[in-house]
């Protein structure tokens, strides 16, 4: 009769125990996970959860179109209390639930920031409370939902002759989305980004509390949430500062072949008093016939010279300017524009101008979106990078980066424009 050594018996027992123990953990975890949808469905909400594949697939995509993380559920809230109750419920479940939460506005994040792998995505565009309310007076403002689109805010405030002061280049984005990032465009040199033009916020915190904050009330939370990438709370309401709205925009483009001259003129303009209301710029690489393309929207000041302009394969830099005005101010505005342009050192034959309505200027990128969608070129990957570069380093950056971009390839937009540090 042969006996199994005791050491082997212990080894088999330990291995069996370990397998059983790990299996028990897995079963318990699966039971916990399977009960989560039921517990979410049981929440008393005015809105609802969706668990279907169409909703989950939509919430697993963003504008960057490079990352896809499927959530367990999508919340379509009808009230702030729906959001608060959901987050409080998940908080009370504790870390063992492994649930994360992400607020999704118009889905223009670039690297999956508005997605929640195996968690809950909150569709903020469905949140339409409180209703938009414009307050005119000496210090006008508008109260809006965190899920409201900026384009809708523009149209509503214009009914009162008012407008927000700072924008993004693309207006079909939610208030909560841009305020969680910064909200930077060509007006930022004067007014600062959108987060510098907010008076109050209503926040749902990570524990499900609804908190009001401003520079005077809960100041630390206020400044953490603005530009906080959604990590300090979900913006459910914002009070946005307004100013009198213009009716028209004089829109100008000029070209430079020298980066130093280009940036020097940009810096001069943002330092000048009442020069322009919008100052941006972009890099042009390998674009033949560019000025001919502009003729559909812009008028060359000298058509003959413009027709003979040749880029010769050079990297060019476009300075884009806008001056806001009302019809009765046109003569004065023309004089001011001419004066400021006379101090710039752009290539003389490349001055292009046009006049458009204030709405058409602010919503200009949407026109491009419609064209790209019609060609099936909108829902493609969008690798994107935003950088703030100090003035002392920008010339070295331009030499290394713009000097080594592959000119043989197609490329997306490269924007470059100055911002006052004080803003």
Describe this protein's structure.
With 423 residues, the protein is α+β, with helices and mostly antiparallel strands. 35% of the residues lie in helices and 20% in strands. It is built from 14 helices and 16 strands. The chain has helices at residues 6-41, 53-59, 80-93, 150-158, 175-179, 188-191, 219-225, 259-271, 290-294, 303-308, 330-342, 358-362, 364-374, 391-401; strands at residues 48-50, 73-76, 101-104, 120-123, 133-135, 141-145, 162-164, 198-204, 210-214, 234-244, 248-256, 278-284, 299-300, 316-325, 352-357, 414-415. The strands form three sheets. Strands 5, 6, 7, 8, 9 and 10 form a six-stranded antiparallel beta sheet that branches. A hairpin with a 5-residue loop joins strand 5 (133-135) and strand 6. 32% of the residues are buried. Mean pLDDT is 89; it is low at 1-14.
């Amino acid at each position: 009769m042969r006996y199994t050594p005791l050491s082997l018996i212990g080894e088999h027992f330990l291995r069996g125990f370990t397998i059983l123990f790990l299996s028990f953990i897995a079963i318990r975890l699966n039971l916990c996970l399977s009960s989560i949808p039921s517990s979410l469905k049981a929440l008393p909400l005015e809105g609802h959860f969706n668990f279907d594949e169409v909703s989950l697939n939509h919430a697993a995509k963003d504008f960057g179109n490079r990352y896809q993380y499927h959530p367990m559920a999508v919340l379509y809230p009808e009230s702030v209390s729906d959001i608060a109750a959901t987050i409080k419920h998940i908080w009370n479940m504790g870390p063992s639930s492994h649930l994360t939460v992400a607020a999704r506005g118009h889905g223009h994040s670039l690297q999956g920031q508005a997605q929640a792998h195996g968690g809950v995505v909150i569709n903020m565009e469905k949140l339409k409370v409180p209703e938009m309310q414009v307050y005119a007076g000496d210090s006008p403002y508008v109260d809006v939902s965190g899920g409201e689109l900026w384009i809708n805010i523009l149209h509503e405030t214009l009914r009162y002759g008012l407008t927000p002061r700072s924008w993004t280049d693309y207006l079909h984005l939610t208030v909560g989305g841009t305020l969680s990032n910064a909200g930077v465009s060509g007006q930022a040199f004067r007014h600062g980004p959108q987060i510098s033009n907010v008076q109050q916020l209503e926040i749902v915190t990570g524990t499900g509390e609804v908190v009001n904050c401003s520079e005077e009330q809960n100041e630390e939370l206020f400044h953490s949430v603005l530009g906080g990438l959604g990590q300090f709370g979900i913006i459910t309401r914002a009070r946005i500062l307004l100013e009198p709205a213009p009716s028209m925009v004089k829109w100008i483009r000029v070209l430079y072949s020298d980066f130093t001259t280009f940036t020097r003129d940009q810096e001069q303009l943002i330092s000048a008093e009442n020069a322009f209301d919008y100052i941006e710029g972009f890099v042009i690489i390998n674009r033949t016939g560019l000025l001919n393309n502009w003729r559909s929207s812009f008028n060359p000041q000298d058509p003959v010279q413009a027709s003979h302009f040749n880029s010769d394969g050079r990297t060019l830099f476009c300075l884009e300017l806008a001056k806001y005005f009302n019809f009765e101010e046109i003569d004065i505005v023309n004089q001011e524009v001419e004066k400021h342009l006379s101090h710039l050192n752009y290539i003389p034959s490349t001055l292009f101008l046009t006049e458009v309505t204030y709405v058409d200027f602010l919503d200009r990128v949407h026109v491009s979106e419609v064209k790209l969608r019609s060609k099936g070129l909108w829902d493609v990957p969008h690798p994107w990078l935003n950088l703030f570069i100090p003035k002392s380093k920008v010339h070295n950056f331009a030499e290394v980066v713009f000097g080594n971009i592959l000119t043989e390839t197609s490329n997306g937009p490269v924007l470059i424009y100055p911002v006052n540090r004080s803003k």
